[in-house]
Design goal:
278 residues; Rossmann fold; seven-stranded mixed sheet; two-stranded antiparallel ribbon
């Protein structure tokens, strides 16, 4: 447990502290559990010190009443830096998925000395795009089920259905998702707060500059699926184009999701390679 800015965040590490660090940042409402432990172990075995943590309102981190988050969107960025402080790490390669990719971009803009590199997965630029980008797929816009957040089975079913809606053509491993979702439920203080508070956060009044991405000087990897229904592929392409020298890796069949095991043979070597840059 790491004390940060009036809250406590739960973090877990894998590997040796002397190895280059990778900080994994989850998406909206996502606890650390969505970064599969085996995924983290593979990175650690490849010589990386891997850190995953629970955002506020997720997992074992500080929880607030549903509808009344006591923090801002920018606080999530400050929290990520505080996790590094709590582990006495000066700089890390920061890898974020979806909203976590936005947090990673904010870190690079506001705390450049703490970011050794970036991997941005299934996300979009935090600054305005020069081109018109496609809207989410209709199936995402229609997906708003009623869920009894106190019912473990209902919550697990919800996460399985979410994976199907947001995923691509890679078949969903229901057994794996149910196991992760069960851990999420069991570790979360308030499921309703975890799944609703992030979506109503104010920005915190500290916007980054419109040209912030153009000033990023560290190595950047953009990983985007061909079948992302929330941020279709042009979002990833535009993001990579906005950051000088960014490398874009397009993953066939991947949707809007934390990389599942089927794509680890692509994602893990790419992440290991770029996080080794000093």
């Amino acid at each position: 447990m790491i004390k940060v800015n009036g809250a406590e965040l739960c973090a877990e590490t894998f590997g040796e502290r002397t190895d280059p660090a990778i900080l994994l940042i989850s998406g909206m409402g996502g606890s650390m559990d969505w970064w599969d432990g085996q995924f983290c172990e593979r990175l650690a075995e490849a010589g990386r010190f891997v850190i995953r943590y629970d955002h506020r309102d997720t997992g074992q981190s500080t929880s607030y009443a549903a509808g009344k988050p006591g923090y801002t969107g920018m606080d999530l960025c400050h929290d990520a830096v505080a996790v590094l402080d709590g582990l006495d790490i000066q700089a890390a390669h920061v890898a974020g998925v979806s909203m976590g990719g936005g947090v990673a971009q904010e870190m690079a803009a506001l705390y450049p000395e703490r970011v050794a590199g970036l991997t941005l997965m299934s996300t979009t630029a935090i600054t305005p795009s020069e081109v018109e980008l496609p809207r989410p797929a209709a199936r995402v816009a229609r997906f708003s089920p009623e869920v009894d957040w106190d019912d473990r089975d209902a919550v697990v079913d919800y996460f399985v259905e979410t994976e199907k809606v947001y995923g691509g053509s890679i078949p969903v491993d229901e057994e794996r998702i149910r196991a992760i979702a069960g851990r999420v439920f069991d570790r979360t203080t308030d499921m309703k707060a975890s799944q609703t508070n992030h979506s109503i956060l104010s920005d915190g009044g500290e916007p980054v500059s419109r040209d912030a991405l153009a000033h990023i000087k560290v190595p950047v990897l953009v990983i985007h699926g061909t079948e992302d229904p929330l941020f279709p592929l042009p979002h990833g392409q535009a993001l990579a184009a906005a950051i000088p020298g960014a490398r874009l890796v397009v993953v066939e069949g991947l949707g809007h999701q934390v990389p599942p095991p089927e794509v680890w043979p692509v994602v893990v070597p790419e992440l290991v390679a770029i996080s080794g840059h000093r």
